[in-house]
Amino acid sequence: MRATKPLTFGSMSRRAALTAAALAAMATLTGCGASGTGARAEGDMGMGAPEGAKVTVVEYASVTCPHCAAWQNTTYEAFKAKYVDTNKVRYIFRELPTPPVEIASAGFLLARCAGEDRYFDVIHEIMARQQEMFSGATPPRTVLLRIANGVGLSEQQFTECVTDEDAIAAMEARVRTAQEAGVTGTPAFFVNGTQVVSPGSEGATLEDLSKAIDAELAKG
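Structure tokens predicted for Protein-disulfide isomerase:
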């Protein structure tokens, strides 16, 4: 097998720089509310109850965010079993690249190229491999390519995926939507448009999410 050429994530084209600029601009926002966080957005990836469900839980997260990975490791499975697998809520995952933005962006592009049925598998696998990606021992590209191979994508397909101009433009649009909604950090959780915050925790705790979700489910 020939040696793989290290991918310069900047080669995702100048559009990737626009994504980074949008994210940097978003970080300067102050409290501007969470309007639009419960409404459907273009490119949403979801599971559980169908669209239009009584309760929608939206998570903004990044595959390079250690707090997002911690929430996935400690809380996601219990949350999914209690509310998503039982179709009690519509769970929406929204992509919000965090530094290093070029790696997060490549990871999100890869997840979408894997297809809707494998999207969440790829997202969770990338988060689970954060320590390996950032340890310095293994280049991030090598880790992402291994994940791509695992879902049936060749090296050429992977490279084409993370350099696709239309896909990058669509990702920029999703970043702008998050910016307009006033989301300034990850992970961020909203239950029917209202943010759920658990101070001192890696994202919203299952207890706090349950309180908000159950209150919405109980409404007439």
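Residues 1-8, 26-36 have pLDDT under 50 and may be disordered.
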